[in-house]
Amino acid sequence: MSSVGHIEIQGLTLGFKNFGMVNAIVENISLSFSAGSFTSIIGPSGCGKSTLINAIGGHYKPITGHILLDGCEIKQPTADLGIVFQQHTLFPWKTVIENVRFGPIQRGIGKNDANEIASKYIEMVGLSGYEDYYPKMLSGGMQHRAEIARSLANKPAVLLMDEPFGALDAQMRTTLQDSLIKIWDETNVTIIFVTHDVEEAIYLSQKVVVMSRNGGKTNNIFDINEPFPRNKGEFLFSNNGRILKEKCMDALAI
Ligand SMILES: Nc1ncnc2c1ncn2[C@@H]1O[C@H](COP(=O)(O)OP(=O)(O)OP(=O)(O)O)[C@@H](O)[C@H]1O
Predict the structure, then answer these.
(1) Whose Cα sits closest to atom 16 in ligand 1?
(2) Is residue 61 part of a domain?
């Protein structure tokens, strides 16, 4: 079990100012993500999933309430909070290894050590041999792998993922899902994963949080008590898998 990466959300309200008025998106939610856990967040479009994940990443300030990482208030983005988005954010003018070692070098780590760190995570995501490729020379799935390696190279306590596999075809998605579970197992990082795909949420996570249409309420939280490693096909079509899927779909319809 990991000792770092515990996120605690207390009475959180998030919103945006429009014409001088604050429009609350997420209202008074409280949630806990234990250190080293894997949680998925699902919910209807526009309910505030991305807003919440960005706030956990230190990009939005709460209107009220608190977001704590291991007991300390999150006030700004830090290396402890890695974020992977659906859209690619790799530097196009840098190679894979230059992208991945960027964070460590920014943190003052020497080039040789940064290369070693980068190589470790490039290998972990299955991109060995592509170190000197530029992003445009990689497929969409490979770019996602490089993004994940770049986040992991900062040794974050928490990895926040906002629909990272949303734009990929089904086969690539399954491959990356399996890679992610392996990476989670190897790193013990806390993962908070936003997705539209109920099956993806159930397959990957220990817990699924369903946000509601109004005020992003999180009253429906389902524990996925299926041991890892999971067999995707078997689990999703098992009685347990089907019941969980139905429960999530019902909660989404509220
Ligand atoms: N920068 C912003 N300024 C004003 N309103 C915003 C801003 N960002 C998001 N919103 C609004 O906040 C609400 C929630 O958006 P958010 O992107 O968090 O939803 P979501 O659940 O992630 O949606 P989707 O599933 O479609 O990605 C939306 O109504 C959106 O218009």
Answers:
(1) 48
(2) yes
| Atom 26, ligand 1: residue with shortest CA distance | 45
| Distance of CA 140 from the midpoint of ligand 1 (Å) | 24
Q: Ligand 1 in contact with 251 (CB < 6 A)? A: no
Determine, yes or no, domain membership for 107: no
Q: What is the pTM of this model?
A: 0.94
Q: How far is the CA of 253 from the centre of ligand 1 (A)?
A: 19
Span 16-63, pLDDT tens digits: 988 888 889 999 999 999 999 999 999 999 999 999 999 999 999 999
- Residue 197 CB contacts under 8 Å (≥ 6 apart), including other chains: 42, 166
The reply to whether 146 falls in a domain is no
Are residues 230 and 38 in contact, defined by beta-carbon separation less than 8 angstroms? no
Q: Is 15 in the pocket of ligand 1 (CB under 6 A)?
A: no
pLDDT one-digit tens code per residue, 79-101: 999 999 888 899 999 999 999 99
10 Å CB burial of residue 214 (0-12, 13-18, 19+) is exposed
Burial (CB < 10 A; 0-12, 13-18, 19+), residue 21, is exposed
Instruction: Count how many domains the chain has.
Output: 1
Given a cut of 80, is residue 71 above it in pLDDT?
yes
> ipTM of the assembly?
0.96
